[in-house]
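User: I'm curious what two different proteins look like when written out as structure tokens. Can you demonstrate?

Assistant: Sure. I'll show them one after the other, since each token string lines up with its own sequence. Here's the first protein:
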Amino acid sequence: MEIKRSLHTALLVSDLTRSEQFYSVVLGLTKVDRELKFPGVWYQIEDVQLHLIVAPHLPSALVNPEKWGRNPHIAFAVSNLEAAKERLVSHGCPIQSSASGRAVLFTQDPDRNVIELSEA
């Protein structure tokens, strides 16, 4: 088998309106049309999609609450890490710097899905 590229990542969310606010407004992602009948929203990020799928029950805690990067997470490259940090802080989002000392920060969406941001 030879994997050519990633097509999408799916995250489970409990409240689609609240999640859309975070991913559309805070992160600034672009929604794309979807024709599926179950509740969710898709976002396009260059040639990869992010799928948010509503689930009635979500895990209640992080595996490693002290170091967010050691939990399941999705990583995005940003053009300016400091500007990203300021935007997250202005929206009241939790942030954590990388424990490794790298120029990386972590945040969580409203359902505590961990997101890694690093400067490209």
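Here's a second, unrelated protein for contrast:
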Amino acid sequence: MIVFLLMTCALLVVIFALHWKCLPLVFRTPVATVLRRASLAFLVLTILGLVLGPLVWQDLTGLPGVLLRIAAIGAVVQVLLVLLTCFGWLFRRLAGLTGPVHVDYGRRRLLRHAAAYPLLALVGGLYGGLYEKDAQVVREHFLPVRDLPADLRGLRLAQLSDVHLGWFFSLEDYRGLLERTVAGAPDALVLTGDIFDDDALNGRAIALTAQYAARLPLGIWYVYGNHEHRRDLAAIEAALKETDIHLLVNEAQVVCGAERPLVFAGVDYPAARGDAFTEERQAYAAQAFASVPPDAVTVLLAHHPEAIDDGAAHGAALTLTGHTHGCQFGFLGVPLLPFFKYNRGFVRVGGSLGYVHSGNGSWFPCRIGCPPEIAYFTLRRA
């Protein structure tokens, strides 16, 4: 947690520095000076809130949650203003407008419609932080499987991932998400990690999840993400044992099927780093697939998207993953921050399909061009 806070504070300082440099390019000097001071005050208050907030407020719902959202939206507005200013500067260079920026006419030619920049940044920040972050979309997918027997045709799975219960996703939000997901009439619900992310809420959230198992003919299936490992994992596991939720930790279970069994295999999140991460990930997959019948239709559940490679290596028909949040920022379906090998949506590796879920919540409460999703997968004969 300390490392996460340090990284967050460092990122905020970088954003502030860029914002500080850009303000005089958009506003006249007196206004830019005032906004610079406001930006500095915002930075100091945000960092103090991140560091001291959890000590002052044990419950981060209500007013603390509102303040956190305001801070997040403010940071996004700053980033958008920096990006718009950079685009304006690039346009100026390409258009050959090379006059000095400290002269008024040069500034106007640099950012001819500069008044629109802060407005666009504000609109973008408010849209991403107040609307799209919570605008769950439904995506329907069909999965072709070779030689799929009749009793598995039309079988329907729902996937949720990366809820990040806590600061920006309340228990009531989670209840609404589960209700909407089950209303889509899936046969099974799979949860691919980073669901239970608040020790104060996890027990109640697990009990709430279990209430929906009776409405799903094939039950609820769950694998850990990295955030569960940062919480009281023993308490999460103990709570799960009191329910009908199927926890898969480097193992596989037959779900249904007479002619060919449908099998869910699930892997834990590797704790290693570097090359050891790949070795541990592959070892987890090998352990999970050890008991899978050779003729099974197998769906691998994992949190990290690189498990898609492991699913393909072991002949899984489909690997369902999360972790990336779809990168949270995109344009026309393309992730703008592609930090991972697989970032969003479907991936084909050999004869196997993988899917990277865009997530249902977020640890940073803003999405633009990448809404949270409820994903359904219907099996059909190839």
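A detail about the second structure: Confidence is low (pLDDT under 50) at residues 99-103, 108-112.
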